[in-house]
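FORM 7B: Structural annotation worksheet

SECTION A. Query
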Amino acid sequence: MASGQGADIIAMAGKGGTGKTTLTALLIKYLVETGRTPVLAVDADANANLNELLGLKVDITLGEIRDRMKTETPQGMTKNEFMEFHINQAIIEAAGFDLLVMGQPEGPGCYCMANSILAQVMEKLARNYRYLLVDNEAGMEHLSRLNLRKIHTLFVVSDPSARGVMTAARIADLTRALQVDVGQKVLVVNRVPMPVPEALDSHVRQAVEKTDLEFGGYLPASEEIFQKEMAQDSLMGLGLDVEAVRQAYEIFKRFL
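SECTION B. Predicted structure
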């Protein structure tokens, strides 16, 4: 699934609680507002709830379809046909973008065949989009599961802590172990108190020097975004008067 043969792939990664799902929602908003559509967003973090930040309701997840394929494929229908039909049914359509939700991790038993079919269907699906955006868990196993071997941009999100920045550096290195070809890896430090603490800036500089991460920028802590997240409300209506939104847009503009 490479650029030129379908969607440009953008992936988000970071340890839990860094706000990568928030950044994913803001990126979808940016791509839609700048006319870079259509976008297919895949929520591949079991705890992400990206749909809430986009104001969308989820009826079925890819994980549920994968489970059902093992026991519910009707006679006269291949497992490939079953998966493709239900995945198309699971697409949540919105203005300028669509959303698919991976759902809970795999249960007991072998999912090799189901995951292989899932990867084939996703590859076919991605040809209809300009961007495929994947919101990952920290381990990024879904990149392998969906057979995403060539990524245009990987945004690695950290919180404003030494441990968060160290984890971001480890995630950047993990892509090599997964044999994923990444065009650029961009470090974004989220929910940062302003002015930026000198100790944090020092950790960030060291992480960038020791890895192939490029520094994207700092996003300030935002009361407006915090209130939206607490209310499980969509971020799509936020404007550029919100400093964190404006700074996120500046980062996207530089790297996409």
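SECTION C. Observations
The chain is about 45% helix and 20% strand. The mean pLDDT is 89.

SECTION D. Sign-off
Analyst initials: ____
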